Amino acid sequence: MKDDIKVDQVLRLAMYDLMLTLYNQGITEIHMGGLMRLMGVPNESAIEHDEERVILDDKFVEYVHEIKKPVPAGQTIH
């Protein structure tokens, strides 16, 4: 169970990093099915999200920077 949580966290951070990279290149609207394919999700699963879009703005950038700050030992973020 703990391993699944760690994998989810790593994947979530990788997705945020990819979205930040796209934002820094001037892309402010992300096609979720496309993003999932870039991350290696099979087309059969990603196709279910082809109509979803995420808008990236300065608040998104602040959020990602905030969640990537180091957490003191023994403290958990929810």
Characterise this structure.
The protein has one domain (2-67). A two-stranded antiparallel sheet has the order 1-2. The chain is flat and about 40 Å long. It is mostly helical. The chain is built from 4 helices and 2 strands; from the N terminus they run αβααβα. The longest helix has 23 residues, at 2-24.
Ordered list of secondary-structure elements with their pairings:
Blueprint: H1 2-24, E1 29-31, H2 32-38, H3 43-46, E2 53-55, H4 58-67
Antiparallel strand pairs: 1-2
Summarize this, please?
The protein has one domain. The protein is mainly alpha-helical. The longest helix is centred in the N-terminal third of the chain and has 23 residues, at 2-24.
What is the terminal separation in angstroms? 16 Å
Topology pattern, helix = H, strand = E: HEHHEH
Report the radius of gyration as a whole number of Å.
Answer: 14 Å
Strand content: 5-15%
State the share of residues found in helices, binned by percent: 55-70%
